[in-house]
């Protein structure tokens, strides 16, 4: 059964460093999403992506975040200069159509020291 | 900030009991309501996508109803089994944004 994959499973970085989180969505899906969950808090929407551009982003998704689909299979989330408060689980998801059921990856745990 | 509430936060039931929990969301700018099941150490798995007021959906022993006018959805589990133990998340969809509730953590005691 096709699934969304994410790498790495755990990333530890120093404050101020850039990180890139990688996702491979399900191959026939057209919509891609990033979410984060800070420990003990809700899952929060970051961004949705369609047709090689951002279709919606939340207020959390500020200038230090960017997304890219560099090669037709990977979907990446870049955090330019990490802060302590960026420590969270980051989930990627994909769906066939907009607002349809989403298929989630296993998440990347980001720890900023 | 858009508020999606789920209650109760956690629930312990005996195997065989039926149970239900609630997701409350804004009654305006509604597009869809999603339910996801999230087991520990796994990723959320879609249960239902509900779009129409009055929708009722069923998957095995789990069913859900939707009232968009008053802004709530109920999830029911009939005859709970230990494998139903998980966190159940709802997500309110408006525009292209998804707003998740905090989840209801269900533990089914054998």
Q: Which outline of chain B best applies?
A: globular
Would you tell me the structural class of the helices and strands of chain B?
Answer: mainly beta
SSE string of chain B: EEEEEEEEEEE
Question: Major β-sheet of chain B, in short?
Answer: 6 strands, mixed
Give the tags.
heterodimer; A: 113 residues; 7-stranded mixed β-sheet; globular; B: 110 residues; mainly beta; 11 strands; 0% helix
Short description:
The complex is a heterodimer of chains A (113) and B (110). Chain A is an all-beta fold. Chain A is built from no helices and eleven strands.
Describe the secondary-structure layout.
The complex is a heterodimer of chains A (113) and B (110).
Chain A: E1 5-7, E2 10-13, E3 19-24, E4 31-37, E5 43-50, E6 53-57, E7 65-68, E8 75-79, E9 88-95, E10 103-104, E11 108-112
Parallel strand pairs in A: 2-11
Antiparallel strand pairs in A: 1-3, 3-8, 4-5, 4-9, 5-6, 7-8, 9-10, 9-11
Chain B: E1 5-7, E2 10-14, E3 19-24, E4 32-38, E5 45-50, E6 56-59, E7 62-67, E8 72-77, E9 86-94, E10 97-100, E11 104-109
Parallel strand pairs in B: 2-11
Antiparallel strand pairs in B: 1-3, 3-8, 4-5, 4-9, 6-7, 7-8, 9-10, 9-11
Description of the molecule:
The complex is a heterodimer of chains A (113) and B (110). Chain A is mainly β. Chain A is 0% helix and 50% strand. Chain A contains no helices and 11 strands. Chain A has strands at 5-7, 10-13, 19-24, 31-37, 43-50, 53-57, 65-68, 75-79, 88-95, 103-104, 108-112. In chain A, the strands form 2 sheets. In chain A, strands 2, 4, 5, 6, 9, 10 and 11 form a 7-stranded mixed β-sheet that branches. The radius of gyration of chain A is 13 Å and the shape is globular. The model of chain A has no long low-confidence stretch (mean pLDDT 93). With 110 residues, chain B is an all-beta fold. In chain B, the strands form 2 sheets. In chain B, strands 2, 4, 5, 9, 10 and 11 form a 6-stranded mixed β-sheet that branches. In chain B, strands 1-3-8-7-6 form a 5-stranded antiparallel β-sheet, with no helix packed on it. In chain B, strand 7 and strand 8 (72-77) form a beta hairpin. Chain B is globular. The termini of chain B are far apart. The chains are: A mainly beta (113), B mainly beta (110).
């Amino acid at each position: 059964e096709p699934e969304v994959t994410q790498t790495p499973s755990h990333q530890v970085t120093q404050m101020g460093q850039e990180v890139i989180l990688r996702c491979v969505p399900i191959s026939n899906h057209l919509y891609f999403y990033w979410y984060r969950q800070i420990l003990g808090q809700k899952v929060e929407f970051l961004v949705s992506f369609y047709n090689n551009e951002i279709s919606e982003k939340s207020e959390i998704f500020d200038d230090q975040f960017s997304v890219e689909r560099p090669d037709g299979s990977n979907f990446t989330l870049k955090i330019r200069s990490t802060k302590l408060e960026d420590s969270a689980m980051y989930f990627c998801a994909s769906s066939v159509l907009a607002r349809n059921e989403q298929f989630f990856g296993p998440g990347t745990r980001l720890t900023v020291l | 900030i858009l508020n999606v509430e789920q209650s109760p936060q956690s629930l312990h039931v005996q195997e065989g009991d039926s149970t239900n929990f609630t997701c409350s969301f804004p009654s305006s700018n509604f597009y869809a309501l999603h339910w996801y099941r999230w087991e520990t150490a796994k990723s959320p798995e879609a249960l239902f996508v509900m779009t129409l007021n009055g929708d009722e959906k069923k998957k095995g022993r789990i069913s859900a109803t939707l009232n968009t006018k008053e802004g709530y959805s109920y999830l029911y589990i009939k005859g709970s089994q230990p494998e139903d133990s998980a966190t159940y998340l709802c997500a309110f969809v408006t525009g292209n944004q998804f707003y998740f509730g905090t989840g209801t953590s269900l533990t089914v005691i054998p």
